[in-house]
Amino acid sequence: MKVFVIGSGVMGSGIGQVFAMAGHEVTLYDVKEEALKKAMEGIRWSLQKLQEKGSVKDVESVLSRIFTSRDLSEARDHLVIEAVFEDIKVKSDVLGRVSPLTDEIIASNTSSLPITELSRAVRNPERFLGMHFFNPPVLMKLVEVIRGDNTSEERFREALDIVKSLGKYPLPVRKDVFGFVVNRILFRLFTSACALLTQYTPHEIDYVAIKELGMPMGLIMLLDYTGLDVNYDISKEAERRGFPFKCDVLEGMVKSGKLGRKSGQGFYDWSKGKPEVKATSGPDPRELLRGAVEEAKWLISQGVVTREELETGLKLGLGMSRGILELGEILGVH
Fold first, then answer.
1. Is residue 89 a known part of a binding site?
2. Does 61 carry a binding-site annotation?
3. Domain boundaries, the chain
4. Which Pfam families match (predicted)?
5. Is 42 a known ligand-binding residue?
6. What mean pLDDT value characterizes the chain?
7. Nearest Cα to 285, choosing from 221, 206, 222, 224?
């Protein structure tokens, strides 16, 4: 299979590496030669690390299957994965230009933008869908495969099989809902955590998220880690689409330059590296979990996903030791 990845940033280069490791010929496309050079250097470094761990046998063999290009017309007759900046106008523009070049599947790696909306830019939208790899793509086992309103059943099943062939777990998202499955649940957890900031410190909230919910990183720290500006932008987009992801304190923090890890200051001080959570108690874990449990039940009731798929996806995507619904039952969330 020939694969054309549009965008050679962290996600695009990682996705390209995954396909090349699975034996496919990959072309990484970017408008900047510098970006392509950096991407190839990053892929070589990653492959060498994997070789040291015994996960990759021959680095040069994998690299020989990866090509770079600044010419979009080279996407002709390739499976296309779009992994450009998370902006609907930017994505729509590139999708509109690439779709006449191939009759194969075209997938967007968007983490939350509506697939149906993006499909309006695509010629023959029945072959367009979401293929949301998690970061870093090489290490994360989960890929959400999202069916838009126009996606055909045949192409949807084909995409699930492709993801499975990469050694990944394909989470079928059968309806195009904002945030898909994993991020939609995460946004509910963020909203609950933010609401508790008036009564508890970030340390106390994160202590419970780690200790009681089995998360690898606290929820408030995760907001910092992924960027307060990024999360503020997502919350505005969610609000515009009628989804209640709210964190009122973000606006003021972003305006004052506190962006989290990237700026050195957020809810935590990151100036000396990853901060420690210093607390021994915190809120009732059910207060953090309730909204996420309700959302999980809604997703299942709407036929978006099955319980087993949802729980597996959350464990793989968020690194939780238990699924949301299992946790809810253990803690007595009603």
1. no
2. no
3. 2-173, 182-331
4. 3HCDH (PF00725), 3HCDH_N (PF02737)
5. no
6. 96
7. 206
Instruction: Identify residue 37 by its one-letter amino acid code.
Output: K
41, 167 contact by CB (below 8 A):
no
pLDDT of residue 244: 84
Instruction: Please give the CATH topology (third level) of the domain spanning 2-173.
Output: Rossmann fold (3.40.50)
Confidence of residue 334 (pLDDT cuts 50, 70, 90): confident
Please name the amino acid found at residue 219: L
**Cβ contacts of 288 within 8 Å, gap of 6 or more:** 189, 192, 193, 196, 205, 208, 209, 212, 213, 219
Please report the pLDDT score of residue 281 as a whole number. Answer: 97
CA distance 31 to 212: 46
pLDDT in tens, 277-310: 999 999 999 999 999 999 999 999 999 999 999 9
> Fold for domain 182-331?
N-(1-d-carboxylethyl)-l-norvaline Dehydrogenase; domain 2 (1.10.1040)
Q: Is 9 marked as a binding-site residue?
A: yes
Q: How far apart are CA 244 and CA 236, in angstroms?
A: 10
The residues that are catalytic are 111, 132, 144, 183
How far is the CA of 121 from the CAs of 19, 87, 99, 153, in angstroms?
Answer: 25, 14, 8, 20
Give the model's pLDDT for residue 201. Answer: 98
The token duo for 57 is: 């046998």
